[in-house]
Write a structure and sequence with these properties.
The protein is mainly α. The chain has a two-stranded antiparallel ribbon with strand order 1-2. Helix 3 packs parallel to helix 5. The longest helix is centred in the N-terminal third of the chain and has 32 residues.
Length: 1032
C-alpha cells in the first residue's frame, strides 16, 4: 500500500540503502553515480568514439544508446561497491560502532546514528546457523563473542533512545544464537533483573524487560514446531517465575505510591508493568504454559485492578495508565481466543470492567488506542459462545448508545489526519490498514453482536441512523458529522455482494441511496463538507455492484466533478470509485452449455461520452499539491484509457501529459505504485489508439523515444523493465520494414551485456519476441540468429529464466522458416536435452513438450523426429515415452492444450515412427494421454474464464522499491495461434483417427482396446458419436 514518504526516525536507518538510494529522496538524480560519460549519438554507424555518430532519422528524433555504453556504465559501480560491501564485516567495525553508541563522551545524535547502524549491521551480518553465505559477508566470530559478552551491560547504561536500538540489536543476534549458542543470555538477564529489583532501580528493570520483550517476541505469530516449544520451555523455566515476581512487586509499588506520586515518578512504574504484560503475551502465544495456568489468579487479579482503578487526574492525563490497560486488554483477548475454557471463570468480571472503562469519561490522550483494544476484546466475546452476556435489550442499547455511536463520530484527530496526512487517512479508511481505527472497531463490535442478534441490532441501528439523519436535517451546517456517521453505519452493516457472514439490513437501500447519497453528489455546493463528500464517495465504491448500470452512468458526470475537488481525499475517493466501477463484472450464463463466465459490465460505448471529461479532470488533479504522484488518480486514468475509445487531440494531449510526468518522476522515482500505473497508462493509450489509428505510431515514437533513451542512458534501473516493454509495444505496432532506430535497438538487444540484469530479462524477451515477429527473415544476416541462440542457452541454463528462454524459442519457431532455423535446430535440441538431464521438473518438461509440438505443427512431424534423432539414434522415441506421454495430460492453457493435442494427433496419424507395427504400445499410450488431456479442457476453460479480467493489473502491485520485473498488462500482445484453421482439437483427433483407420481397417481397434484406459475408451467413443466419426 501507499505510504507517505517518512522522515528518518531512530528506528529507521539509512544504512541498508546504497548511497544513491539514500540521497535520492532529497537530491535531484544524477545521470550516473560516477563522472558522466558523454552519451553516444547513434547506433547506425560503426563506433567512432564518443564524438562519432549521426543524429538519427527524422521520424525518430535522437539516437538510442550503444550496448557497450550500457556495459561501461554498469560495471564500475559493481567493482567499487565491493569494498563498501566488505567494510562492515571488517574485524572490529561492529565493536567500534558499539563503542561509539555507548560512549557518554560523544554527541547524542552521533551515538544514536551509531546504534542504528549497529542494529542494522547485526540484522544483516550476524552469522546464521548452517550459514551458506561467504564468510566475508558475516561478522567475525571474535567480534560476535565480544558483543555477546558486553551488550547486556551496555544496554543498562545508555539513554532510552539508544537503549531501544541496542535491545533490537540484541534480539537480532539472539534470533540466530539463542538459546543454543548463547546460553548465558537469559540467566544474565534474570540475575541483573534480581539486582535491579532489590535495589529498587525501576529504570534498570525497564531496560532489562525491554530486552526481554525483544527476545521473546519471536514466539508471536510463528508456526508451531517441536524446536520452538523446546526453546519456549527453556525460556519459561528460566524466566516465568522472575517475571511474576517483578510484576507483583511493581504492582504493589504502584498501589502504595499512586495517590501521592507525580505523573513523572509513576511513568516508569506503569512502563514496567506494561512491559511485563507484553512479555506475558509473548510467552502465552504458543500455548497456555503450566506455570501461567497455576498462577492465573495472581495475574488476573492485578489485571482487573489496573482496569478498575482510577488514578489522580494528572496521572490519567499523562497517558501511562491507559497504555498499561491497552496491554492488559490485549492479554485478555489472547486468553479469550485461545484459552476460553481456562479463562471462563474470570470472563464476566472482565467484561464488566472493560465495559465500564469504555463508558468512563477521561482526559487521557491515549484513550483512543485503549478503546480500540477494549472494543476488540468485547467483540471477541460477542462472537463467542458467551454472547449472552450482551443479549439483553438494555445491554445492547447501552453498547450502541455508549460504546458504538460515540466512537463512530468523527473526532478532531480524524479531521487533522484528513487535512494533514491524506495518504494515511485513505489507507486507514478505505483500504483497511493493519491499524485498527475506533470507527472500524466499533462497527466490528456491532457486526459481532448481529451474528447472534441480527433483528435486535437492525432495529437499534436503524433507529440510530434515522436519529442522526434527523439531526442533520435540523442543522445541516453544524450537524454534517451526524450524517457522516449514519452513512458509515450503513456501509459497515449492510449486506454487500460477496460478503461473508451476511449483512444486517438497517435501511431500505434504494430509498437511502436516493434520499441521502444522490443529493450530496448533485448538490450545487459540492466543494463543501469534504469529509462528508468523501464518505459518500466511499459508499458508492462499497456498493458499486448494486447500483444499476443506467443509474451509475447517469451519476458519472456528477462524480467526475469531484476529481477536481481541492481535497486530496475527495478526489482520490472519486478516482477509486470510477476505477472500481469500470472493472465491475456480471455473471453471465453461456447459452447452450452449463457454464458461467464473468463479463465486464461497462464497455467503451458506455463511457466514451464521459471519457474526455474524466481524463481532463484527472490530468488537472495530478497537478494539485500533494497529488503529483497520487496512485489512485493514475490508476483511474490507466483504467479509463484502457477501456474508452479516444482519438484526435485527446490522444495528443494525454500522451504529452503522461510523458511530462514520466520525465519528472525520472528525477526521483520514489512511489512504485504510481510509477507502475503511469507506465500502464502509457501502454493503454499506445495500445488502444495505436491499433485504431496506425498513423499515431510516429507521434508515440517521437514523444517517447527521448524519455526512454534517458532512462537507459542515465541508468534509471527501476524503469528499465518498463521501458523495454514499451519498446516492444511500439515494435509490435510499427509496420515493416522497421526504421533504422529500431534496428539499432535490435543490435543493442542482441548484445550479451544487455542481458546482465536478471530483473530485465522477461521484458527483454518481450522486446525480442516483438522483433522476431516483425523481421524473421533478417535473422540470417549479421550473425543475428547465432547471437539469439547464445542468449537462449544462457537463459535456459537457469531455472529462474527458463520460462523466458522457452517464450523466446516458441516465438522463434512460430515466425522463422525451416530454411533459416534448420542449420541450428540440432544446437537447440542439444541445449534442451542437456538441461533435461538435470532439470526434470514438471514445468520444464511441459515447456519442452510445447516447443516440440510447435516444431511438429510448423515444420511437420517428420522434421521433429529426424532432427531429434540426429542428436542420437531413437532419441525421439525415448523422449516421447519418458516425458511427452506422461506429461501431456499436465499441460495447461487453452492455446497450449490445443497445440499439444493437435501435435500429438499428427504424430499418431502421420509419423512413420509411431505407425510402425513395433510401436503399437507407444501409439496406444500416446492416444490415451491425448484423450485424457482433451477430457478436461472444458473445466480448464471455465476456470480460466473466471480468472481472467481487466483487473489483473491489481495483482502486479509492488510492495517496495527493488528493481524487479512487473508485467504491463496493457502492453501485452495476444498470443499467436498457429492453428487458427483448427477450431476444435477434439474433432480434429477423431476425424484424423477415422481417416487413418479407414486406410488399415481392423488394425487400430485392438491397440486401443489393449493400451487405452477404459474411461478414456468411453470418452473416445462419445467423441466419435458427437462428431459422427468411426474408428474401424
Amino acid at each position: 500500500r501507499l505510504r507517505p514518504s517518512p522522515s528518518l526516525s531512530p528506528t529507521d536507518s539509512p544504512s541498508p540503502l546504497s548511497p544513491r538510494e539514500r540521497f535520492s529522496k532529497t537530491l535531484p538524480r544524477r545521470s550516473t553515480p560516477f563522472p558522466p560519460i558523454p552519451p553516444p549519438k547513434t547506433l547506425a554507424a560503426p563506433d567512432r568514439g564518443d564524438n562519432g555518430g549521426a543524429a538519427g532519422d527524422a521520424r525518430h528524433p535522437g539516437g538510442l544508446v550503444r550496448a557497450d555504453a550500457l556495459s561501461r556504465r554498469r560495471r564500475p559501480p559493481r567493482r567499487r561497491a565491493e569494498p563498501r560491501r566488505r567494510g562492515p564485516a571488517t574485524p572490529g567495525f561492529a565493536l567500534a560502532l558499539l563503542g561509539l553508541a555507548s560512549s557518554p563522551r560523544h554527541d547524542l545524535q552521533a551515538r544514536l546514528a551509531a546504534s542504528v547502524h549497529f542494529k542494522n549491521l547485526l540484522r544483516r551480518r550476524w552469522p546464521k546457523p548452517a550459514d551458506d553465505a561467504d564468510d566475508g559477508d558475516r561478522l567475525p566470530p571474535n567480534d560476535c563473542v565480544i558483543i555477546k559478552t558486553h551488550i547486556l551491560q551496555l544496554l543498562l547504561t545508555v539513554p532510552p533512545l539508544i537503549q531501544s536500538q541496542l535491545s533490537e540489536a540484541l534480539a537480532a543476534a539472539a534470533a540466530s544464537d539463542f538459546p543454543a549458542r548463547w546460553e548465558s543470555l537469559l540467566p544474565s538477564i534474570v540475575s541483573s533483573l534480581g539486582n535491579a529489583l532489590s535495589a529498587g532501580d525501576v529504570p534498570a528493570t525497564n531496560s532489562l524487560l525491554a530486552a526481554a520483550v525483544s527476545l521473546f517476541s519471536r514466539f508471536r505469530n510463528v508456526f508451531d514446531s517441536n524446536t520452538l516449544r523446546i526453546d519456549l520451555k527453556y525460556c519459561l523455566d528460566t524466566f516465568a517465575a522472575p517475571l511474576l515476581e517483578v510484576f507483583l512487586s511493581t504492582s504493589r509499588r504502584l498501589q502504595a505510591s499512586a495517590a501521592a506520586a507525580s505523573p513523572l515518578e509513576l511513568r516508569p512504574v506503569f512502563e514496567c508493568l506494561r512491559l511485563c504484560c507484553e512479555i506475558f503475551y509473548s510467552l502465552n502465544s504458543v500455548d497456555l504454559p503450566e506455570f501461567f495456568e497455576d498462577h492465573m489468579r495472581e495475574w488476573m487479579t492485578e489485571f482487573r485492578a489496573f482496569l478498575t482503578t482510577s488514578y489522580p487526574p494528572p496521572v490519567e492525563a499523562d497517558g501511562a495508565p491507559d497504555a498499561l490497560r491497552a496491554a492488559v486488554c490485549d492479554n485478555l483477548q489472547l486468553y479469550m481466543e485461545k484459552y476460553e475454557e481456562e479463562f471462563r471463570a474470570y470472563l464476566k468480571e472482565f467484561v464488566e470492567a472493560v465495559w465500564g472503562l469504555l463508558m468512563a469519561p477521561t482526559v487521557s490522550p491515549s484513550r483512543g488506542q485503549l478503546a480500540v483494544t477494549a472494543i476488540r476484546f468485547l467483540t471477541t466475546v460477542a462472537e463467542s459462545v458467551h454472547h449472552a452476556l450482551f443479549g439483553t435489550p438494555d445491554a445492547m442499547k447501552q453498547i450502541c448508545d455508549s460504546v458504538v455511536v460515540p466512537n463512530l463520530r468523527l473526532r478532531d484527530e480524524d479531521e487533522e489526519l484528513f487535512e494533514g496526512n491524506w495518504v494515511e487517512y485513505v489507507r486507514r479508511d478505505a483500504e483497511g490498514s493493519d491499524t485498527d481505527t475506533l470507527r472500524r472497531a466499533a462497527c466490528r463490535l456491532l457486526r459481532g453482536l448481529a451474528a447472534n442478534y441480527r433483528e435486535q441490532v437492525a432495529v437499534l441501528v436503524s433507529a440510530q441512523v434515522q436519529q442522526m439523519l434527523a439531526a442533520y436535517a435540523a442543522d445541516r451546517a453544524n450537524n454534517w458529522k451526524e450524517k457522516d456517521a449514519a452513512i458509515y453505519l450503513v456501509i459497515a452493516l449492510m449486506q454487500k455482494p460477496g460478503a461473508t457472514g451476511g449483512g444486517t439490513p438497517v435501511v431500505d437501500m434504494e430509498s437511502f441511496f436516493a434520499s441521502v447519497i444522490v443529493p450530496e453528489l448533485q448538490a450545487p455546493d459540492w466543494e463543501s463538507e469534504p469529509m462528508l463528500k468523501a464518505t459518500v464517495l466511499r459508499f458508492l465504491k462499497e456498493f458499486k455492484d448494486q447500483i444499476p448500470k443506467a443509474t451509475a452512468l447517469a451519476l458519472l458526470p456528477s462524480v467526475t466533478r469531484f476529481l477536481t475537488h481541492e481535497s486530496n481525499v475527495v478526489h482520490s475517493y472519486a478516482a477509486i470509485f470510477i476505477e472500481n466501477l469500470l472493472i465491475t463484472k456480471d455473471v453471465v450464463q453461456v447459452p447452450g452449455v452449463n457454464v458461467v463466465t464473468r463479463a465486464s459490465r461497462y464497455v467503451a460505448a458506455d463511457i466514451n461520452s464521459s471519457a474526455q471529461q474524466i481524463i481532463q479532470s484527472l490530468s488537472k488533479a495530478l497537478g494539485y499539491p500533494d497529488s503529483y504522484e497520487n496512485p489512485y488518480l493514475m490508476k483511474c486514468l490507466m483504467r479509463v484509457l484502457g477501456i474508452a475509445t479516444i482519438a484526435g487531440q485527446v490522444v495528443h494531449e494525454i500522451t504529452a501529459r503522461l510523458v511530462g510526468i514520466l520525465m519528472e518522476v525520472c528525477n526521483n522515482p520514489k512511489n512504485p505504485d504510481f510509477n507502475h500505473y503511469l507506465f500502464e497508462a502509457l501502454a493503454a493509450v499506445i495500445g488502444k489508439a495505436g491499433e485504431q489509428d496506425p498513423a499515431l505510431v510516429p507521434l508515440f515514437e517521437a514523444s517517447l523515444f527521448p524519455v526512454l533513451q534517458r532512462i537507459l542512458v542515465e541508468d534509471i534501473s527501476e524503469f528499465w523493465p518498463y521501458s523495454f516493454q514499451i519498446f516492444a509495444q511500439l515494435v509490435n505496432l510499427s509496420p515493416p520494414p522497421l526504421s533504422q532506430n529500431y534496428m539499432q535497438l535490435f543490435g543493442v538487444l542482441l548484445s550479451n551485456a544487455t542481458w546482465d540484469r536478471p530483473p530485465c530479462v522477461p521484458a527483454l524477451v518481450r522486446l525480442l519476441r516483438a522483433f522476431l515477429r516483425k523481421i524473421p527473415n533478417e535473422l540470417n544476416q549479421e550473425g543475428r540468429l547465432p547471437n539469439i541462440l547464445v542468449i537462449f542457452r544462457s537463459l535456459v541454463s537457469r531455472s529462474s529464466t527458463e520460462d523466458s528462454a522457452f517464450y523466446m524459442l516458441n516465438t522463434l519457431v512460430e515466425n522463422v522458416g525451416l530454411d533459416i532455423i534448420n542449420p541450428h535446430i540440432s544446437e537447440i535440441w542439444s541445449a534442451l536435452f542437456t538441461r533435461l538431464q538435470t532439470r526434470q521438473a514438471v514445468k520444464f518438461v511441459n515447456s519442452l513438450v510445447v516447443v516440440m509440438s510447435l516444431v511438429s505443427v510448423k515444420y511437420g512431424p517428420g522434421v521433429l523426429v529426424s532432427s531429434v534423432d540426429t542428436i542420437q539414434p531413437n532419441l525421439f522415441t525415448t523422449i516421447l515415452q519418458r516425458f511427452w506421454i506422461p506429461n501431456l495430460k499436465l499441460i495447461k492453457g487453452s492455446l497450449e492444450i490445443k497445440l499439444t493435442a493437435v501435435a500429438s494427433t499428427k504424430l499418431l496419424c502421420e509419423s512413420a515412427v509411431l505407425l510402425d507395427a513395433a510401436a503399437a504400445q507407444t501409439w496406444g499410450k500416446l492416444l490415451d494421454s491425448t484423450v485424457t488431456l482433451l477430457s478436461r479442457t472444458e473445466q480448464d476453460g471455465v476456470q480460466q474464464e473466471q480468472n481472467d479480467g481487466a483487473d489483473a493489473v491489481d495483482s502486479q502491485r509492488t510492495s517496495g522499491y527493488s528493481v524487479s520485473f512487473v508485467r504491463l498488462q496493457y502492453a501485452g500482445k495476444s498470443e499467436d495461434d498457429l492453428l487458427k484453421d483448427i477450431n476444435d482439437p477434439k474433432q480434429f483427433l477423431v476425424t484424423s483417427l477415422a481417416s487413418l483407420s479407414a486406410q488399415s481397417p481392423g488394425r487400430f481397434g485392438p491397440i486401443i482396446e489393449q493400451h487405452v484406459d477404459p474411461a478414456n475408451k468411453s470418452a473416445l467413443l462419445q467423441l466419435c458419436a458427437a462428431y459422427n466419426a468411426n474408428i474401424v
